[in-house]
Amino acid sequence: MHDTSPRARQRGFTLIELMIVVAIIAILAGILIPNFVNARAQAQTAACESNLRSIATALELYYADNQVYPTASGAAVQPALLTANGVAYLSNTPKDPAAQNGAATYALTTAQATGGSAATYTIVCPGVHVGSTLAKIPLTGSAGGTVCGTNCTATKVEYVAGQGLAAAP
User: Fold this and answer.
1) 111 belongs to a structural domain
2) For residues 71 and 82, what is the distance between their CA atoms, to the nearest angstrom?
3) Residue 155 lies in a domain
């Protein structure tokens, strides 16, 4: 007599079939995980660039209203620094997602106009960025807009008045 119960007719997966499925999953993970890591690094750099541009816009608005940049030498960029006559030009303290320390802030250095030279500022990003995400950004002090390139060794991003974004070692 044959057992015709539903349990007897069911077959499980063999060990070979399970090993093949595990191997396929491992191959897919090996392909996808590096892409996710690179995407995260690119997002961090893009966020830093956006924050730098926002701070630069606030500085330019401050300058337009007051004809001077706030006095700063490596000062932390905070709303209080960019407030004059009751007007806050920056509504929050921007944070860089690539910063190793959650309390790290963007640093601002300003130079006022003297003897024919224009007022200027430099904003430095506190994070350490992956060089490949800075490949299209000009190098600090480079002539003719030379970009960092595919094997970029820079790890910092800064914003210089009149020049824009720059990659720095």
Assistant:
1) yes
2) 10
3) yes
Full residue range of the structural domain in which residue 142 is found: 6-168
Q: pLDDT tens digits, residue range 116-152?
A: 888 999 999 988 888 888 888 888 866 666 787 777 8
DSSP-assigned states of every residue in the chain: ----SHHHH-----HHHHHHHHHHHHHHHHHHHHHHHHHHHHHHHHHHHHHHHHHHHHHHHHHHHHSSPPP-EEEE--TTTTEETTEES--S----TT-SSTT---EEEEE--BTTBPPEEEEE--S---GGGGTTSBBTT-GGG-B--TT----EEEEETTTEEEEE-
Domain assignment present for residue 1? The answer is no
- 137 is a domain residue: yes
**Total domains present in the chain:** 1
pLDDT in tens, 32-70: 888 888 888 899 999 999 999 999 999 999 999 999 999
